[in-house]
What we know:
Layout: H1 2-22, H2 32-64, H3 95-128, H4 133-147, H5 151-159, E1 173-175, E2 178-181, E3 184-187, E4 189-192, H6 196-224, H7 230-248, E5 254-257, E6 260-262, E7 265-267, E8 270-272, H8 274-300, H9 304-312, H10 317-347, H11 359-370, H12 373-402
Helix pairs in contact: 3-4, 3-8, 3-11, 4-8, 5-8, 6-7, 8-10, 9-10, 10-12, 11-12
Amino acid sequence: MVARSWNKFLVSTEQLSEVTTEHQAIPFYRDERVLRWAAQIVSAVLLIGLLVWIIVNFIQAADARGMALNFKFLNDPAEFPISDPVLPYDPSRTFGYAFLVGIIKTLLVSAIGIVFATILGTIIGLARMSSNWLISHIALAYIEFHRNIPLLVLLFLWYFPVFAQFPPVEESIHAGPVIINSRGIYSTWPRLGSGGVVWLISIAVGIILAITAWKVLEKRQVDTGKSTYYALISLAIVIIVPTIGWFAAGSSPLYLDVPVLEGFNYSGGLRMTPEFAALLIGLTMYTAAFIAEVVRAGIQAVSKGQTEAARAVGLSFFQVIGLIILPQALRVIIPPLISQYLNLIKNSSLALFIGYQELFSVGKIAINQAGRAVPVFAMVMFTYLFMSLIVSWILNWYNRRIQFIEK
């Protein structure tokens, strides 16, 4: 009994010693948390100091060579032309305005290219999964051809052998409302008349009212269980309100602008230059090949049981794809799709090699005219960065909205 009591006393003493040791204050120079913070602070200070040293030396070297790093030159006249400007432009405009024209042209070709590449890539991705051997292998050939050729080579193949070979103006090709010559592709295009603004406002009002009616009536149908015909009513609003706006405009709010030969060229209608057409087609077809693989991977990520269940209840192939597969596949498709959109925007800078003057091309000319390489390249770099961040933010927001919420 005495030995057992003594052993218990020794065990209690050891436990008390361990607890006391654990609660003893650790010197700060041996505390792992303090050491980690100190290492991070020292590293940050050294990195910031190195960056400051590099920047200061760079500015001093630039000043010594007479290379001003300010942006005052943006208010000087650009004194160079820009072909097919989206905004009214002449060489007397400032460098800043010329840079804005380049940005708008980049945004235009990028936005149109993203839409067309998404549509074409989705179609090719679905064709790649077709059970028809011929359709599937045609899609495969398209994908492999475009994925294994540099985009610059593809642009050359579209521009020089195709669009650069269009006939002169006097030998223009007339294909219905479309006219093709070496100056571009012309087509009849609707334009807003004197009452066009009123009609556009009525369209916007009709869309807003239709969306509101859809949500309100749909909620009422869910709450009461009675059919409210919200889809038909919303469609009727979209049709009726713009129709009223059309007659309220007073005169014809919309007319067809037909291209007419005046002197040595056509004027009027919609004109697409050969450079713009080659760039748009090249970007669209190149990016669509990658989007097709993204779409195929996203669809294959959906369980086959979903497809089998949908076909079992009698849904057609297109109903299965549109109602069952794609809504679930989007959560897999969106993240890599963001990268393809960003690549398309950045790849538009290759337009310089086929003569289309967009952001990068305008920046290069501005460097030659103003002699301000560093500020201009900084503007170009941050403009591309800003556009890419905006597109990435929008698609990431949409991706978060469509993700499954697991509880």
